[in-house]
């Protein structure tokens, strides 16, 4: 059984950052699309309806900002993890000379 483990630290970081960026872009594009679909309807809304929607839209915006923040922190955590594994790998390689 081969017990060698290898990592491509740059690839790990690159793929994760790319996927996080793509996920964030899809989320934001969906919200933009939703706003554009709703915009024509707003003219016919009563004041109460517009107010209620505004409250919900604020909730969506805060939730989207929260998700974007989580995704960003996740990307940093994966990058930091890859850095730590790379540092450990270098440290252990030096021990073996």
UniProtKB/TrEMBL annotation:
InterPro entries: ESAT-6-like_sf, T7SS_ESAT-6-like. It holds the Pfam family WXG100. It comes from the Bacteria. Belongs to the WXG100 family. This is ESAT-6-like protein. It comes from Mycolicibacterium insubricum.
């Amino acid at each position: 059984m081969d017990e060698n483990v290898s990592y491509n630290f740059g690839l790990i970081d690159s793929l994760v950052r790319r996927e996080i960026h793509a996920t964030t872009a899809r989320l934001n594009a969906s919200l933009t699309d939703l706003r554009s679909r709703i915009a024509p309807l707003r003219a016919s809304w009563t004041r109460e309806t517009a107010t209620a929607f505004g409250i919900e839209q604020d909730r969506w915006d805060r939730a989207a900002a929260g998700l974007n923040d989580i995704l960003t922190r996740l990307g940093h955590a994966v990058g930091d993890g890859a850095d730590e594994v790379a540092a450990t790998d270098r440290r252990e390689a030096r021990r073996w000379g």
